[in-house]
Amino acid sequence: MDMGSNGFRDSRLDWIYSYWLQKRGGRRAASRGDLAPFEIKPVLPILNLIDVRREPLGFRHRLVGTEIVERLGRDATGCWVGPALYGPAWQGIFDGLRAVTEEVRPYRRITRLDWHARHWLSMESLELPLIDDEGEVNMIVRAASYFIDPQSATRERCIVSPLVA
Asked: What does the DSSP assignment read for 93-147?
């Protein structure tokens, strides 16, 4: 398996992580305004922009890339992270997004999609916090790549790795 310089299976995840690190500069995270659509055009199909609501804490899919929609067979744009969307896996997904928000740090996940109708798929994702002018996370960029993993049944459901922030 060919891994990028940051250890991702999909080189597009490696690229978007490097891009985020560059745009972040000396701050804790990049901001939404730092992302230039013309610069990230090649990875737009695998991006998911997630709005962060603070009180009460919640996460809403603002934009879901076309490749994600094709792989999952549904468009979650406008949907909130919860049991209606993710079934029994929703709390783990919510808690993962909470960690990105509260820690203001990126995470890499490899997950079995056992909550989805296409349960044979696995997903490698990169979750990157975006901050507002006060330094609070107001959006998360998730880049996702899907693959069939023959070992998925023999490993834990979700492998989570915090990345250097």
From this structure: HHHHHHHHHHHT--EEEEEE-TTSS-TTEEEEEEEEEEE-TTS-EEEEEEEEEEE
Q: Read off the pLDDT of residues 25-80 as tens digits, 9 standing for 90 and up.
A: 999 999 999 999 999 999 999 999 999 999 999 999 999 999 999 988 899 999 99
Strands 137-148, 58-64: pairing kind = unpaired
Rounded-to-integer distance, Cα 83 and Cα 65, Å: 22
Positive/negative CA dihedral, 89, 28, 63, 161: negative
CATH code for the domain of 143: 3.30.450.20
pTM: 0.88
- For tokens 């940051």, name the residue: 6
In a domain, 151, yes or no: yes
- Counting DSSP H helices and E strands in the chain, the numbers are 5, 7
Tell me if 5 is assigned to some domain. no
80, 74 Cβ separation under 8 angstroms: no
